[in-house]
């Protein structure tokens, strides 16, 4: 048995200024990058708990996508369901930090998440229905979220929803959350508490 994680996969860039930021000019500092995305991060952490994970999402047919897929495969995340897109770039999140490492501004280039649509989910419906837990996030399109919850309704699949932000938590209101969690921090707790009961191994 396994956990299925659905959502964003991207590359994170963070630039941190050595001194107080000066606007409209170049600022000396350090730039860091890492693989990110809500779903990718959750899959990564579940692997640390030695939980089998299927990751559902999309990356571009580009160098960032190649790097992310290689890292995920090294982590033993099942990447067989990740869509590789020729006409879309891998998602990128860019954050500018001040001298205190606090975020000053950020830009999110995540158009590729629209590739995770109803048609994509339909192709993998049977795999999702065989999951013990399905994790999804509010960055997905509302109609995609609704379809996923619909196919999981009245099943034994445990559903976890990451609202991502206070603004996006509004997407939760109209759904029935019986046998579901809306706080992503509880996912790890539930897995730690219920590993034997869920029989992942």
- Number of helical elements: 6
Coarse shape: elongated
**Helix-strand makeup class:** alpha/beta
Name the quaternary structure: single chain
The counted number of beta strands is 11
Sheet with the most strands, sense and barrel status: 5 strands, parallel
Strand/helix succession:
EEEHEEHEEEHHEHEEH
Portion of residues within helices: 25-40%
Mean pLDDT: 85
Low-confidence runs of at least 5 consecutive residues: 182-201
Gyration radius from CA atoms, angstroms: 18 Å
Strand content: 25-35%
Q: How are strands sequenced across the largest beta sheet?
A: 4-1-9-10-11
Distance between the termini: 7 Å
Question: How are the SSEs placed, and which strands pair?
Answer:
Elements lengths: L2 E4 L3 E8 L11 E8 L1 H11 L4 E4 L1 E3 L2 H12 L8 E3 L5 E7 L5 E7 L8 H6 L1 H5 L3 E5 L4 H11 L5 E5 L17 E2 L3 H14 L3
Parallel strand pairs: 1-4, 1-9, 2-7, 5-6, 9-10, 10-11
Antiparallel strand pairs: 2-3, 7-8
Core attributes:
alpha/beta; single chain; 201 residues; 29% helix; 5-stranded parallel beta sheet
Notes on the protein architecture:
With 201 residues, the protein is α/β, with parallel strands linked by helices. It is 29% helix and 28% strand. It is built from six helices and eleven strands. It has a five-stranded parallel β-sheet with strand order 4-1-9-10-11, sandwiched between helices. Strands 3-2-7-8 form a four-stranded mixed β-sheet. Mean pLDDT is 85; it is low at 182-201.
